[in-house]
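[agent] plan:
  1. take the single chain provided in the ticket
  2. run structure prediction with default settings
  3. attach C-alpha cells to the ticket
  4. add a short note for the reviewer (M.T.)
[agent] executing step 1
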Amino acid sequence: MAVPAAEAPRTQGPGGEEAVASSEVTLSGDEIAEVQGGGYTAALLWHTAGAFTDAVSQGARDAFAELGIEVIAETNAQFDAAQQANDVETVMALSPDIIISLAIGPDAGAEAFRPAVDAGVQLVFLSNVPQGYVHGQDYVGIVTDDLAAMGITAADLLADALGGEGEIGYIFHDAAYYVTNQRDQAFKTWIEINYPGIEIVAEQGLADPAAAEEIATAMLTRNPNLDGIYAPWSAGPADGVLAALRAAGASDVALVTMDLDTNVSLDMVEGGNVVGIAADEAYNLGRTMAIEGAYGLLGKPAPAFAVVPAIGVTADNIVEGYRQSLAADPPQEVLDAIG
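[agent] step 2 finished; step 3 output follows
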C-alpha cells in the first residue's frame, strides 16, 4: 500500500484560523486621512521587555505616528498575569481607543482585558487570544509569525549546513502552545519531506528551558555520530545546547534555532556551532498590529489571524537579518566579532 505524501506545513491560528499575509493588512489614503483626523490614542501593554518587544513596540509606534494616533502608555507585565490585569486597569483610566498586547494566559487574559472589551476599546493581540473572546466582536485580530515558514526556514538552514546528509537530534517544546508547536512540527515535517539524506535519530521534548543542556548532553552521549541539533528557540534552549556542545568538545555539531539573540548570534559569527537562526519580522508585527487597530476604529473587518514573514539568518547576512527582523543593528559585541 502506497504511503500518502506528507503535506507541507501550513500556519494556522490558535482556533484553526487560516493565515493571511501581513502585507494584505493595508489602509487606503482616504482611510488614513479619516483616522488622522480622529484624535485617537493607543496604549501598548507588553508581556515582557527585550530586543523583540522593543522592535514590536517601535513598529507600532512608527505606524501610529503615521496615522496621527498618540501613544499614551506603554507597560511591561514581566510575564505576571496579575500585573497585566493591573496594567489594563491603570491604562483604562486614560481611556485609550486602541490597546495592543500579548495576553498572558488564556483564562487570566480573558479576565484582565474584560474592562477594555466592555468599554469598546479596539484590542489587537500578539500571538495569543484570551479564552472565549470572539473575533470582530471582542477583539480586532491576532498577529504573529508565519509559524510554518519559521520551521521550514530552520530546516533549510540546517540541511544546507549539513549538505543534505547526516544524523540530527530534534529538541521540541513539550507544552501545549500553538506557536512553538507549529514551528517545531514544521521543522520536523520539512526535514522528513525534503531531505531523505537526513535522519532524525533522537527526539526529546523540553518543558523547562533550563533542562536543555542536560537533554543535549544525553543526546550526544547516546548518539556519538550526531551531525546537527535543532533547538526550539534561542534564549534558554539553544544556550543550553551550546553549553553541552562546548563541554563535550563537539565543535563539528551544527546547531540551528529560532529568534535572534546575542549569545547564539555571537557563536554564529565566531564560527561556532550555530549555523543559522530562523527569525521573524518583529518590527513588522508591531506595524501590522497598529494598522489593525485602525481597522477597528474604522469598523473595517480585519483578518482573524495575520502573519509576518520568516527570515533565514546566517553569519553572512546577520546585519541585514537584524535590520529586517528587529529594525536595529546587531548588539555591539556581535558587530565587534564580525570585525
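[agent] step 4 note for reviewer: Residues 20-144+282-308 form a domain with the Rossmann fold fold (CATH 3.40.50.2300).
[agent] ticket updated
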